[in-house]
């Protein structure tokens, strides 16, 4: 059961286990806190950009910090895993430009890994990534990951250099991960599930169960954005005035490539 206020903000939710989750917002309409499972605290910049996301999970406290330049472009992201045991980020991503990032992290064997990742775009969508990496300062084999999508643009399969399937995943209509499994993880350090795009091709923050839709963060569990839309896509559409719902609550017909504006999915055209 969902309860919303007059601003269409989700204020509380009761799940199937009868656990009540509550939500709080700031004066600008940004969600700042939630209670219940995966309770979180969100801090924002003066320009309503997400600065720090803290989530309590069964694996500990997960933190994601973002730094922006003077033009509000994302330049650095730091991810902390289980802050009770470490105060140092286990992953730092430098966003050089839209198509190029540098990632400092460790692999499953605790080797230091530096990845230079090049995103390959077609019609504004990432269709492949090309990684050049150092593992403990030793050059590793270059890795390519090809993204294969369904009709809505969800990435359902990823293949590697030799065409073999590296990963399969499936999502619900509103973006919840149903299944996800690495089929082949031989390229240690290059190919990590945390790095992958998924629902309609967007970046994922799987540790927080959040999807980054560029302009805003989106929570698939509640099918709500965490911030109010700063745009009204269609002034003649009553649903456009609900600034938190995802694509008019019709995810099989529409997608939202920017976090601001829905568009017809290819399958519905």
SSE layout:
Layout: E1 2-4, E2 10-14, E3 20-25, E4 31-34, E5 40-44, E6 50-57, E7 60-68, E8 74-80, E9 91-97, E10 100-106, E11 112-122, E12 125-135, E13 138-139, E14 143-149, E15 155-159, E16 165-171, E17 177-182, E18 203-205, E19 210-212, E20 217-219, E21 224-225, E22 254-255, E23 263-264
Antiparallel strand pairs: 1-2, 2-3, 3-4, 4-5, 5-6, 6-7, 7-8, 8-9, 9-10, 10-11, 11-12, 12-13, 12-14, 14-15, 15-16, 16-17, 18-19, 19-20, 20-21, 22-23
Features:
269 residues; mainly beta; RHS repeat-associated core; 17-stranded antiparallel beta sheet; four-stranded antiparallel beta sheet; globular
Largest sheet: 17 strands, antiparallel
Percentage of residues in strands: over 45%
Q: State the name of the first-level CATH class.
A: Mainly Beta
Taking all Cα atoms into account, the compactness measure Rg is 19 Å
The helix tally amounts to: 0
The counted number of beta strands is 23
| Gross geometry | globular
CATH-defined topology:
RHS repeat-associated core
CATH superfamily: RHS repeat-associated core
Number of domains: 1
Unreliable segments of 5+ consecutive residues: none
- Gap between N and C termini, in Å? 33 Å
- The helix fraction, in percent, is under 10%
Describe the structure.
The protein is mostly beta strands. The protein has a single domain, classed as RHS repeat-associated core. Helix content is 0%, strand content 46%. The chain has no helices and 23 strands. The strands form three sheets. The protein has a 17-stranded antiparallel β-sheet that branches. A hairpin with a 2-residue loop joins strand 11 and strand 12. The relative contact order is 0.11. The mean pLDDT is 90.
